[in-house]
Each structure stands twice: as C-alpha cells, then as structure tokens.
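Minutes, project check-in
Item: structure for the 110-residue chain
Input as provided by the requester:
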Amino acid sequence: MASIKFTTKDIFEQDFKISFRGYDPDEVNDFLDEIMKDYDAYDAIIKELKGEIARLKAQMANAPRAAAASVEDSETLRTERASSASNFDILRRLNRLEKEVFGKQIAQED
C-alpha cells in the first residue's frame, strides 16, 4: 500500500523560489490551500472508514449471524451512496460551501 508523502503541514510550510518569470505566488498559495483542504477531507474520510471497519469487525466477532446481515446492509448502503453521490461530487459541494463561508469571512475582515 502506498504511503502518504505530504501532510497538510508540509504543504503549508512549503516555500518556492521566486524567479523573474515564475508563477504567481498568490495563485500557487491559493492552489495549495485547496490541496490542504482536500487532504483534510480525505483524512476525515479515512478515519471514518477505519472506525466503521473496526466497528464491523467487533460486530462480526460478537455475533456471526448478525454480522452476515450487517454486511448485506453495508453493501446495500454502499450501493445507495455510490448511486446518490460520488466522492468527487461531495468534495465539489464541500469546496463550494467553504468558498461561501470563508469568502464571506475574508470580505468582513477587509
């Protein structure tokens, strides 16, 4: 399994050399901010799924018959989730909401 190379702190603290014809630093920083938000979202999703896995494993160990029914229910929920919204759609919606919330905060600070 591949390991995570960067944390949000690594991305936040990354500095780039500025050259005469380099990229616009503000644009790079804005893009890195969006990447950090995605990393945080992915981290939250991973933690949630690991918790669900642990819960289901404990459930299977305690009640094998009930666990079989839970696995079927989980598969049904997973199918319903996949059909209703993909992770990409969720992240896109989250991005729009963050722009609304943080955009208004920035405007109020000025």
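Outcome recorded: Residues 24-85 form one domain.
No further action items on this chain.
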